[in-house]
Amino acid sequence: MSLTHSSDRSAPWENRSHIRRLRRSDRADFAAHLLRLDAESRRMRFGSAVGDAVLARYAEGALGDDSVLKGVFMDGTLRGAAELRAIRSPLPEAAFSLEQPWQGQGHGARLFASLVDTARNSGLRRFTLQCLSGNVAMQKIARRYQAQLHFEDGEVTAELRHPGGDMASLTREAAEERFAQSLAAADRALYRLATEVGVDLRLRRV
Ligand SMILES: CC(C)(COP(=O)(O)OP(=O)(O)OC[C@H]1O[C@@H](n2cnc3c(N)ncnc32)[C@H](O)[C@@H]1OP(=O)(O)O)[C@@H](O)C(=O)NCCC(=O)NCCS
User: Fold this and answer.
1) What is the C-alpha radius of gyration for the chain, rounded to an integer number of angstroms?
2) Of 92, 165, 185, 201, whose CB neighbour count within 10 A is largest?
3) Using a 6 Å cutoff on CB, does residue 19 contact ligand 1?
4) What is the whole-number distance in angstroms between the Cα of residue 139 and the centre of ligand 1?
5) Residue identifier of the C-alpha nearest atom 12 of ligand 1
């Protein structure tokens, strides 16, 4: 059984994006990402309509000790996240969110692949995922990983079982983190250089 799909692992520079683990210091960016979700994406992600205040509160508690989050960054801005919650429980739960303009371009599948590696490398042998039964994209991705899908009352619960981490999953995750660190270092060097010659690069950001 192959747990890596080449299409889920396109080179990050092809879509000018990268994935890395989120830290507590990313909390404000995570909140900003959730607040940019349109109404339909919020409904798909949380199962019902949720307002800004609820999302802000959710983001506040999301990066605790009992969860792992991965983020996909487009040109330095967090546009999507994969969450693994209750990682100390027997059955952790995963959830995904991508802002609407970045949906349907393979980023959800890449986040999923990355989260499976994280789960394997953390010693988690299974997790579940809940989504609405109309969420075809999410179910397609879960099926690729041989998830067992249970349909009930308009909702689908996907249960994934996977082997523990191995050299391949450890290497992929380490490479992902190192790539993100290199980008951040290059960014810092560029800003330092620009400051030295009196150019304000922030003016380029939209
Ligand atoms: C669900 C979600 C994570 C999927 O990520 P995505 O980047 O949009 O999906 P991908 O581009 O990786 O596509 C995955 C598969 O679904 C298909 N797909 C994508 N959008 C689709 C759509 N609207 N309808 C049908 N199939 C779709 C793709 O063709 C691909 O199929 P393939 O495996 O046969 O190639 C993302 O759309 C999202 O965050 N939506 C809002 C929140 C949400 O639904 N969260 C899930 C519940 S926790």
Assistant:
1) 17
2) 92
3) no
4) 8
5) 106
